[in-house]
Prior knowledge:
There is one protein chain. α7 runs parallel beside α9 (195-211). The protein is globular. The chain has eleven helices and eight strands. By secondary structure, it is of the alpha/beta class. It has a single domain, classed as Phosphoenolpyruvate-binding domains (TIM Barrel).
Amino acid sequence: MSAPLPSPADRFRSGGGLLLGTMVMYVRAPGIIWMLSQVGFDYVFVDMQHSSLGWETIADMCEMGRAIGMPVIVRPSTVGHPEVNRIQDLGAHGIMFPDVRSRDEVDRILRWMRYPPSGERGVTIGGPGSDYRIDRGPGALERINRDNIVVIQAECMEAVEALPQILAGGGIDLVEVGRQDLAASLGHPGETSHPDVLDALRAVVAVCGQHGVRVGAQAATGEDAQRLIDLGIRCVSHIPDRRVLLLAFENAVRELREIGRVAGIAETAPGSS
Length: 273
């Protein structure tokens, strides 16, 4: 049997270089994971919380990620021990937990994700979660524990203020700031670059820097990405696939309509023949 593959978790634990990610929540073809890897993304979030993606789709995407070495991190629709372990058994490299506000939540999450003796995960071997390796040797389960990528989302000021305690016990690879929810919690819905939101981001970066934990956030534009990088954020996510498609189609229609207008061709009303 071949040697174990390099751990994608190392991308989040070595150095402070820039990592680029995005989110899949609409496209169901597992080839999207390969496509994102080919164009140069470093990781991908797959979202079950705000999408209709089902278990078989998640399984296919996780297996594609493992086959090509692309970290696939799944955000579950329901956070519970059975759901977390099922996502792991399907082959996800990591899990992103929404709206985490306390160290107690993190300790519970880590117990769920880890095999005994350090956790409570039910033991299974030989599946996608272990790269189809039947390894019963010393340290096999501990290696899988170590390779888990643990992401928590800070989505309100309660989480930002509790972050020193949340990170104090270790075990977290990335704090992903949900700026839309954070802005709303601060009384500025939709204003993800409001000064209060930027101040909160600075506080997150400072605390995470003290604990050696990366900070991530989603950028809506290149200008927005530059702002995040200037703040010290080193995991920048592009907009989700659904929005990429919407913007591309909107731009295409706008361009084609303009070509027709310049050519003097009248538009046909929708539904007319």
